[in-house]
Design brief:
Largest sheet: 8 strands, parallel, barrel
Distance between the termini: 21 Å
CATH class: Alpha Beta
CATH architecture: Alpha-Beta Barrel
CATH topology: TIM Barrel
Strand content: 15-25%
Shape: globular
Order of helices and strands: EEEHEHEHEHEHEHEHHEH
Strand order of the largest sheet: 3-4-5-6-7-8-9-10
């Protein structure tokens, strides 16, 4: 199955890179990041409007304050935007702003939200919960598709294991299995999987070699000052280098990048 986010087809022969900041923090931060990732070859922009954080005191996102900024940046770059929603009420609120909805790992089991997303036409990306079986992950997509919306993408973002050296454990088994058994496009989020920016590039290459349809990467102009997920975010320079190497890996498998 091929899913379209804007004019970009995910699930076809081309490899899609979704990139941008974990959270939209300011006009300068978001605008500069969007321009930089597009220049390096990303074809879909990511950016958190609302953020589900473990600590209530942590940055929760700009919310509605970011709406006009998002419209401006999308018009300037031509990049479609995917962003996480955490509540059914947010679907309509951002319908005119986002091109695809992201269901975060914490909401993979939020069946009311999944059902509601099945009643609207925009693509839905479902991240695997850090403790979910592959079968549960695939079945969460069924909740969306049963409502009539077949535009679903699965995203592996690491699972919780006994290992503590990295944030999570990237499960490439799940990527290969889901590709063969779900019929849906499958992408990888190496940033959340590992939580360490120095390791993100290698996991991007591994995802491409494993046959994933794309990756979702966090990029920030100054990761040390990021309001969320700075340790796992690539700098502009780091992302550019990663993209150049990624193209070489894809070439070895007779694939290329989706480019706007």
């Amino acid at each position: 199955m091929v899913v379209e986010i804007g004019k970009i087809q995910i699930g076809g022969p081309k490899f899609t890179v979704i990139a941008g900041p974990c959270s939209i923090e300011s006009e300068t931060q978001f605008k500069d990041t969007a321009a930089s990732v597009k220049k390096s070859g990303a074809s879909v922009l990511r950016g958190g409007i609302w953020k589900m954080r473990t600590s209530q005191k942590a940055f929760q996102g700009l919310g509605a304050e970011s709406f006009e900024l998002i419209k401006k940046v999308k018009n300037e770059t031509g990049l479609p935007l995917i962003s996480e929603i955490t509540d059914i009420r947010q679907i309509e609120e951002v319908a005119g702003i986002v091109d695809a909805y992201q269901v975060g790992a914490r909401n993979m089991h939020n069946y009311s939200l999944l059902k509601e997303l099945g009643r609207q036409p925009k693509p839905v990306l479902i991240k695997r919960s850090f403790s979910a079986f592959i079968d549960e992950w695939i079945k969460s997509a069924d909740y969306v598709m049963s409502g009539g919306n077949q535009q679903v993408i699965l995203c592996e973002r690491g699972i919780r294991t006994f290992e503590t050296a990295t944030r999570n454990t990237l499960d490439l088994n799940a990527v290969v299995y889901a590709k063969k058994h779900s019929g849906l496009p499958v992408i990888v989020d190496p940033s959340h999987a590992v939580g360490i920016s120095d390791l993100v590039p290698q996991l991007c290459y591994a995802a491409a070699a494993a046959g994933a349809d794309g990756v979702m990467v966090e990029v920030h102009p100054n990761p040390k000052e990021a309001l969320s997920d700075g340790p796992q975010s690539l700098t502009f320079e780091g992302f550019e280098k990663t993209m150049k190497q990624l193209e070489k890996v894809l070439f070895a498998f007779d694939r290329g990048l989706n480019i706007i």
